[in-house]
Amino acid sequence: MPAFGKFTLLAVLLTAACGAPPPAPPAAAPPAAATADWSPAPVVPRPSQPPPSLVVDAPLPEQLAMGLVVLRYRAENLRIVPVYGPAALDVSPRIGHIHVTVDDAAWHWADGSGEPLIIQSLPAGPHKVWIGLADPTHKILDQKTLTFVVPVHSGHH
After folding, report:
1. Virtual CA dihedral for 46, 54, 112, 115, nearest 10 degrees?
2. Can you give the pTM of this predicted structure?
């Protein structure tokens, strides 16, 4: 085939390929997690926020048997961060931290890490841990109290 003929054939094929409308993309199925109980990503301000709540798991039994109290918790409708003060009340989505009291002590500590609480060296016997979900000004928004028994154990953890 002469060079001109190959060029003409190539031009016709390119014209046909470029002139045709692109095929419609297949309909994408919604992500598996896009269900009614899946909340929007907490990265943009929301005009209305449901009230915050605190969820706390029971101590892990294997560690408790060694005298180590490990409490996993999470906040719903609030992000746990180490940011404090009245100006932080205007942050959206809402932020806060937790307060913790062990065995009705007259004092507590605040934690803004969001990591599990680890309490060690409690004597064998019954104990109580109070956890309060607080806003940046330390106002308690929700709270949970866990009771458990540290068994008699030998050795270190």
Report:
1. -120
2. 0.68
